[in-house]
Amino acid sequence: MPDPHSLEEPRPARSLWRTALAVLASALVLVALIAGATTWWMTHRVTAQARDVARAVAEEFRQAFQLTPEVRINSLVVVAANTPAAELMTMQKQARVRHAWSQTWMHSTKTIEVEATFTARAGFDLHEPFRVTIDPATGTVITQLPPARILSLGMSDVSVPRDEDGYWNKLTQQDREQAFRELEEEARKQFADSDLVAEASREGEIRVRALIRKAMDPGVPIVTTPAPAPR
Length: 231
Prior knowledge:
The chain has 231 residues and is an alpha/beta fold. It is built from three helices and eight strands, in the order αβββββββααβ.
């Protein structure tokens, strides 16, 4: 005969609780599966769109410059860098430079003045990292260009306005070569002190932004940052 004072619940009540908990657990699992599937689908869709954009950006660079930067989606490399050209020239300037060289020995002075037109080409050394990174979450594009620099310095239209020996201190071939070396150093310093490199950097950023704009929506934010130092 059952004890009327027993604390044990009737069996039907316990069975009902178990059924309710099982239904609740199943519902939670189903919700988690649906949320996971939705997240996967959205991520896959965004990543697929970002991949298409990455390839479009790379193609714009290939057509314009015959090279492609490394293009990433976050940290994933989608397009590997291909830079058959070692340099990307974005600015060129010319200057006429004159330099005088002299030496005195035993009160005898020899003098030579040399002059030439120098052409400086500035831009980017593509042996250094050149990257475009796309952030699908924010839509931001980050470009990383190597620092601009003077890539080459050419000399033309050379003249020697003055070439004078001393009485017993004669000019030599080595003296003339030294004068031209100093002339080139003077030209390089003039260009380095000018705004040539800064203009080359700005022009490079403008060109890169224009190419990215052609492959993406006009409102996409583009951020330019220094490229990481080579390892």
